[in-house]
Amino acid sequence: MATITAAARPAAARQFVMGTVFEWEGKDRNGKIVRGETRASGEAQVQATLRRQGITVTKPIKKRRMRSGKRIKPKDLALFTRQFATMMKAGVPLLQAFDIVGRGHSNPSMTKLLNDIRADVETGSSLASAFRRYPLYFNNLYCNLVEAGEAAGILEELLDRLATYMEKTESIKRQVKSALMYPTAVVVVAFIVVTVIMIFVIPAFKEVFTSFGANLPAPTLMVMAMSEFFVKWWWLIFLGLGGGLFFFFQSWKRNEKMQVFMDRLLLKIPIFGDLVEKSVIARWTRTLSTMFAAGVPLVEALDSVGGAAGNWVYKVATQKVQVQVSTGTSLANSMADAKVFPNMVLQMTTIGEESGALDRMLSKAADFYEEEVDKMVAGLSSLMEPIIIVFLGIIIGGLVVAMYLPIFKLGQVV
Question: What phi, psi does 367 have (nearest 5°)?
Answer without folding.
Answer: -60, -45
